[in-house]
Amino acid sequence: MHAQIEPNFIMNVFFIIIAFPILSGMILLHPKTPLSFLQIHLCLLVPGPIIALLAIFYLHESIVIGPWRLDSLSWVLASFVLTISLILQKFSVRYLFGDRSYRKYFILFTLTTVSNALAWFSDDLRLLLFFFGATLFGLFLLIGLKREWQVAKKAALSSGRMFLISWLFLLAAVIWLSEKTGEWHLSMALSETEILHSWEKTGMNLLLVTAVLIPAAQWPFGKWLLNSVVAPTPVSAIMHAGIVNSGGMLLTRFAPLVQENLSQTVLIVISSFSILIGTGIMLVQVDYKRQLVGSTIAQMGFMLIQCGLGAYAAAITHAVLHGLFKATLFLQSGSVFDQNKDKIKLATGHHSPVLIFIGIILGLGSGIAIWFSSPNHSYQLVSAIILGWSVSFSWVQLVARSNEQMGRFVGGMLFIGAGAVYLIVQGGFHEILHEVHESVVGTSSFIAGVFVLLILTLGSLFSAWLMSHRSSPLYAKVYFWLLRLGEPDQELIESHPKYLAQIPLQGGSFR
User: Fold this and answer.
1) What is the DSSP string of 419-434?
2) What is the DSSP string of 76-139?
3) pLDDT tens figures, 122-145
């Protein structure tokens, strides 16, 4: 009995605490509320992620309480999303100051992130649908909050249509699963999947995969994310850090169901091509925010491949780390005014053959170690090759190509430090997410892993060939094709926001 009371108490405290920022955000909407109240609102955002973080280490088992499911995954995602919300709202205090919708941003940020956090606590499929839909609707409102700008309105409508389609696909999958199993509780419904026919599993999985591919901006659904770059930087940051990666979280929740080969194959094939397309867009675009969009498409493709190969814990780890990293890049995007001046130049000095050979050995050793840690899991093959190449490349760039002893020493220290951080972070997430460890949820064929490597290798070789034949017609065709893919719709392009010429310079509506 005691074990049931403690999680219930923590859950109630957590839900009460995350309700306070919602109330303070609503109070802030009133025009007579002084803007100094924002500091109280920000203070009320602090306890939520702290309690979620403490619950990760305090609660060590999965417990279902009514319509809620408390486990390591839900607490990790709640602490991540609420932390991102706190950072972005703090950043927005000055960044958005003067905007006509200044007050509305904070309540929408709060509602969107709280809904996103609660979605992963929901064991009731109806609650999951509601909070997932509320998250998408909140993002739709944030993108189009600058209603006086027609470009922002059209971008919001473009995104909103895709969000609605995604939600309807999820709705169809949820209703189908509930009708067949007779359960609205996700944990109970997933325990009854053995009564489903193979074609029913295939249909449900394909609906889920489609619902996931759209918010993750995978090909051919990535246009909405490219159109959304007109949104203010904090909105883009929260979109890329906590919303587009919800696909991996959704697949993790439905992991016992998503074991049908056809849906996994569809997911892996589309995600593999999305990695190549996203990387290409990132390389050819000159607009910094669209470079970040291309990077996100590629990163989300890799996350979904992890899900397709059954590596759900790795996918969640990837989603969290990518979200923190990408939010940082967006928040500093305003200071990237001259990329050519600040471009990082790789060392091009004397190459030490001995040190290069050591780098190759280190890469091979790291790859073999990863592979032998779980040789029967196809994802380990992908991880082994990618990690081995990364280790070898990093060693060569940091150490082998340095001309001076001090440079090699510093490079070696950076290499060792980065390796130590990687091992600590990986080990920490592996321990925390023990309930969704790869060996527990599903398998994937060795052929699937080889296919992923084949696609990525062929794409890399093709890219290298193009770079060495820049004068060829094929290079020009591929370049302009990627450039066109990375551009928004024509109706969403303005050389200068026209609405600015129609609005008197009278300040924002928050005054």
Assistant:
1) HHHHHHHHHHHHHHTG
2) HHHHHHHHHHHHHHHHHHHHTTT-TTHHHHHHHHHHHHHHHHHHTTB-BHHHHHHHHHHHHHHH
3) 888 999 999 999 999 999 998 888
